[in-house]
């Protein structure tokens, strides 16, 4: 039933889009505007993406910069495409559109342009809008300041509810959210917060200071965006105020911006876990793809050479007992798999903040216990399999003990390395799956052939 409804909705959308495209092709401006402006801004942006440059030119002619701004805020295109889309517009139209966007969204777009282009648009823009955008542009990327918006409502704690409602009615059209109204003192320092509901139900002559909540959770303007996302998630906020070191209210960060941050951070962490520098965009150029992947692959190539050289050191052992080579992929693969599992647990704990609620030593001890149990189970299982397969008890014992030891060490390495990186303020996701796998390959080879060399006399050639 749900699939049928989704298909029906999809057909309806496509019919609407076809009708809008036909109106553009037939130069039916009034019909296009009537139907197009009834769409949700996201659907407007989806339709806009399907158009080629020639037809888009008509959209710029039919829509005002203010109407285009609402569409542009919902436009999901690759970062380098913003430059091309803006180039399709006249400079005055583009500048006017950017002026009508929420300041944080306009900054996101301008950050993708060259400095000369940014300066050009800021010069043409309305002075007030340009100044708001300039104030946000100088904040360091990936901080609270870089994603906050200055379109919020602030009232004085000495005001009455009646005067606060007047401000709310006047400023609400430009505010990004009105569900929280922030309260400031005479120096514009954050003093409290009041919800829209409390404001509506309070008596008109009540002072704001009497009904506000003065225990406000805020974030510093220099705080990392990932930490801001955790705070909004933990407190279930729709928005959070941003302050400077003197507690002056500078802006707010809304939950829709945090959703984008969480998506960006998840993509970034996945890229690093996969050993790829950037997966935010889908590159269609083999050269560009190769340039992003080669650094990690070259590092792993040299680590792989270390593994090969280690095996070479045990050439004499291999010559005497050739069957040992059969189990190299098994032991190395098991080490890589269990190390990656432990890595995923550690990185997730760091990313979600769960590790702050328990000691890192507790995590390592727990993972060591997990490695012991899995190592014991797999070691005993493989020992019997090898014994019945090769009819050699000592060979089975050697492989079993190697698996047991390797899984314990690999699990510890998978959990300890990201914790160590986090301790030195290095992104733990850099301890990627391929990196941990290669490191554990080296460890497993050392353990396996080290034991084989020690107990050579007990093995059948």
TrEMBL record:
Transmembrane segments: 294-311, 323-347, 368-389, 395-421
Entry-linked SUPFAM superfamilies: CBS-domain pair, MgtE membrane domain-like, MgtE N-terminal domain-like
Topological relation to the membrane, as annotated: Multi-pass membrane protein
GO cellular component, one term: plasma membrane
Keywords: CBS domain, Cell membrane, Magnesium, Membrane, Metal-binding, Transmembrane, Transmembrane helix, Transport
CDD domains: CBS_pair_Mg_transporter
Gene3D superfamilies per UniProt: CBS-domain, MgtE N-terminal domain-like, SLC41 divalent cation transporters, integral membrane domain
MF terms in GO: magnesium ion transmembrane transporter activity; metal ion binding
Location within or outside the cell: Cell membrane; Membrane
Residue span(s) of domain CBS: 148-211, 212-270
The protein's assembly and partners: Homodimer.
Family: Belongs to the SLC41A transporter family.
Name of the protein: Magnesium transporter MgtE
């Amino acid at each position: 039933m749900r699939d049928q409804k989704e298909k029906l909705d999809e057909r309806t959308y496509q019919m609407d889009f076809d009708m809008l495209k036909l109106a553009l092709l037939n130069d039916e401006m009034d019909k296009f505007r009537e139907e197009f402006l009834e769409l949700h801004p996201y659907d407007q942006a989806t339709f806009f993406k399907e158009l080629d440059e020639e037809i888009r030119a008509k959209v710029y002619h039919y829509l005002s910069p203010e109407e285009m701004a609402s569409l542009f805020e919902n436009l999901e295109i690759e970062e380098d495409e913003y430059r091309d889309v803006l180039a399709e517009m006249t400079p005055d139209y583009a500048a006017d559109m950017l002026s009508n966007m929420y300041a944080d969204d306009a900054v996101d777009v301008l950050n993708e342009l060259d400095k000369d282009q940014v300066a050009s648009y800021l010069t043409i823009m309305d002075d007030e809008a340009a100044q708001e955008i300039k104030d946000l542009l100088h904040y360091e990327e990936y901080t609270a300041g870089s994603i906050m918006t200055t379109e919020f409502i602030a009232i004085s704690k000495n005001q009455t509810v009646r005067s606060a409602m007047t401000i709310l009615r006047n400023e609400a059209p430009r505010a990004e959210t009105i569900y929280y109204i922030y309260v400031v003192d005479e120096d514009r320092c954050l003093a409290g917060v009041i919800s829209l509901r409390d404001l509506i139900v309070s008596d008109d002559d009540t002072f704001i200071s009497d009904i506000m909540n003065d225990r406000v959770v805020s974030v510093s303007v220099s705080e990392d965006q990932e930490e801001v996302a955790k705070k909004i998630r933990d407190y279930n906020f729709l928005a959070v105020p941003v302050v400077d070191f003197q507690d002056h209210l500078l802006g707010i960060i809304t939950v829709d911006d945090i959703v984008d941050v969480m998506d960006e951070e998840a993509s970034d962490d996945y890229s690093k876990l996969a050993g790829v520098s950037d997966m935010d965009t889908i590159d269609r150029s083999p050269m560009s793809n190769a340039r992003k992947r080669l650094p990690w692959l070259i590092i792993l190539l040299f680590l792989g050479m270390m593994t090969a050289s280690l095996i070479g050191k045990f050439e004499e052992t291999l010559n005497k007992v050739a069957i040992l080579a059969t189990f190299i992929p098994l032991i190395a693969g098991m080490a890589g798999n269990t190390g990656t599992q432990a890595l995923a647990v550690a990185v997730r704990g760091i990313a979600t903040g769960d590790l702050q609620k328990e000691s890192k030593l507790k995590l390592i001890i727990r993972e060591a216990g997990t490695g012991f149990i899995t190592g014991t189970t797999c070691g005993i299982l493989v020992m019997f399999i090898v014994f019945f397969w090769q009819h050699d008890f000592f060979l089975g014992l050697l492989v079993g003990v190697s698996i047991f030891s390797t899984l314990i060490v690999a699990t510890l390495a998978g959990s300890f390395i990201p914790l160590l990186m986090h301790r030195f303020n290095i992104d733990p996701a850099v301890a990627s799956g391929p990196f941990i796998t290669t490191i554990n390959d080296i460890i497993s080879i050392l353990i396996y052939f080290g034991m084989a060399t020690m107990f050579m006399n007990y093995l059948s050639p």
